[in-house]
Specification:
By secondary structure, this protein is of the alpha+beta class. It has three domains: about 25-130, no CATH class; about 160-235, PDZ domain (Pdz3 Domain); about 245-445, 2-enoyl-CoA Hydratase, Chain A, domain 1 (Alpha-Beta Complex), CATH 3.90.226. The chain is globular, with a radius of gyration of 27 Å. Strands 2, 3, 4, 5, 6 and 7 form a six-stranded antiparallel sheet that branches. It is built from 13 helices and 17 strands. The relative contact order is 0.10.
């Protein structure tokens, strides 16, 4: 009895105290009871893991934009959808509770819609609100094929890239002697359908997987070229992606074109530099235009051919700690020559690391147009609905200036900006690189002659 009398006042006090906690704080402290577990999981991952530490306002505004767009596809009207702005205060979970209530209202205004689609669109909107290429959402169907080993297949002979978060896939290179070249596909074409299926919202690898298939089987590609639409049907075939090595242009300028950082490409570039040196090259053009990147180790090794020692770039986590990405000394070629690295707006990821590292260590200059700004480390996270959320967990910074390289308007700004208009005759960027190197070789020769005369 004594114990009971002692406990009763304490229980009464706890109950009274709980009743005094404001509703906002209760929502922040108590476990979530939302029905939107997939959106909640995605939100938590982005809040806790994304390198840029997004705010609740950024993520939930993007989520609502995605949900409203999906609701309108399903027949909702502006008049029926809630229009008042949410009062987001920056309080993580009370803001999410408000969002959850608003999602209920959007679903109620679209009674015929599949609520899971609206929730998925909200997650997609959250990912897109980060406005960078390594953070994106794959629904359960698309997630099944993510990172799965592909059986031996054939393709059509194009290299493709997604230039922006909301942009369709673009053809950045058509390989000679392939079905794509024979059919008439051109660099700059935007792929909008594959076999009649809309692919404008898919990621690069997803479109590539739809284009690939058994050798000899047909595939129809729908493209936009400017304002005109075209459709090309071709049979898939096997082909090898060429690496243009030991090409001498203008007599004494060596040119190496690196289409993609895959396989043994670093060894191939290393061998090419040695062959060019033996063939009398006095300078080198390293052409990384439209190279979408690939293996990080290949990027480090190729840059290391031209940089004796030092840091190429820094990898930075959300805690602000920087980890240097240093050269691989095994790849350094001791007989260095004047070097130009050519890039364009489709040069991405590892290609950007190569250009940044060479420039930061004064091993060459960069020419062309600003790169994609798509360089970072992404991590996949499983979601309750079977989908995947890819989250950027580290960003890349220039080793010399500390500038961030990942994101729109970022990337590598060349030392000499040279435009190459689509459809223009000739190659103004390569011509500029050759002219620069010839002048540099001539100056070196004149300086050597003066020293010998003295």
């Amino acid at each position: 009895m004594i114990r009971l009398r002692t406990l009763l006042p304490l229980i009464a006090f706890i109950a009274a105290a709980c009743s005094l906690v404001p509703a906002e704080l209760q929502r922040e402290l108590l476990p979530s009871n939302t029905l939107y577990k997939t959106a909640e999981a995605a939100y938590q991952v982005l809040i806790e893991r994304h390198v840029d530490k997004p705010s609740s306002k950024t993520l939930l505004t993007g989520a609502l934009d995605g949900a409203v767009a999906e609701a309108k596809k399903e027949g909702a009207t502006d008049a029926g959808l809630p229009s008042s702005p949410l009062n987001l205060t920056g309080s993580t979970w009370s803001d999410f509770a408000k969002f959850s209530d608003r999602l209920d209202a959007i679903a109620a205004a679209t009674p015929s819609a599949d609520k899971t689609k609206i929730e998925g669109a909200a997650v997609d909107g959250m990912a897109k609100s980060m406005n960078e290429c390594h953070t994106y959402y794959l629904d359960p169907t698309r997630a099944k094929s993510f990172n799965q080993p592909q059986p031996p297949v054939s393709g059509i002979g194009v290299q493709i890239n997604k230039p922006a978060v909301d942009a369709p896939i673009e053809v950045v290179r058509v390989y000679p002697g392939t079905p794509a070249e024979r059919a008439g596909l051109k660099e700059g074409d935007k792929i909008v359908t594959v076999d009649g299926q809309d692919v404008t919202n898919l990621q690069t690898e997803e479109v590539a997987n739809k284009v690939r298939g058994a050798e000899g089987t047909p595939v129809t590609i729908g493209v936009l070229r400017g304002q005109a639409s075209y459709s090309y049907t071709m049979n898939r075939a096997r082909f090898a992606v060429p690496l243009e090595t030991d090409t001498l242009i203008e007599g004494n300028i060596g040119r190496i074109v690196v289409p993609q950082l895959v396989g043994a490409v670093a060894d191939e570039v290393s061998a090419a530099v040695k062959r060019l040196d033996a063939g009398g090259a006095d300078a080198i053009v390293l052409d990384l235009r439209s190279d979408p990147g690939g293996d990080l180790s290949a990027a480090v090794d190729i840059a290391s051919i031209f940089v004796r020692q030092g840091t190429l770039v820094y990898q930075t986590g959300r805690d602000g700690n920087r980890t240097p990405l240093d050269v691989n000394k095994r790849f350094y070629f001791p007989k260095q020559k004047p070097l130009v690295v050519l890039v364009n707006h489709n040069s991405a990821s590892g290609a950007e690391i190569i250009a940044a590292g060479i420039r930061a260590n004064d091993a060459g200059i960069v020419m062309g147009t600003q790169t994609a700004g798509c360089v970072g480390t992404g991590q996949p996270r499983d979601l309750p609905n079977g989908g995947l959320l890819l989250v950027t967990i580290t960003k890349i910074q220039d080793a010399k200036t500390g500038a961030e390289l990942n994101g729109p308007t970022r990337g590598i700004v060349p030392d000499q900006v040279i435009d190459q208009p689509t459809g223009a005759q000739g190659d103004s960027q390569l011509d500029a690189a050759v002219a620069f190197l010839k002048a540099k070789i001539a100056r070196s020769s004149s300086s050597l002659e003066l020293q010998l005369a003295a």
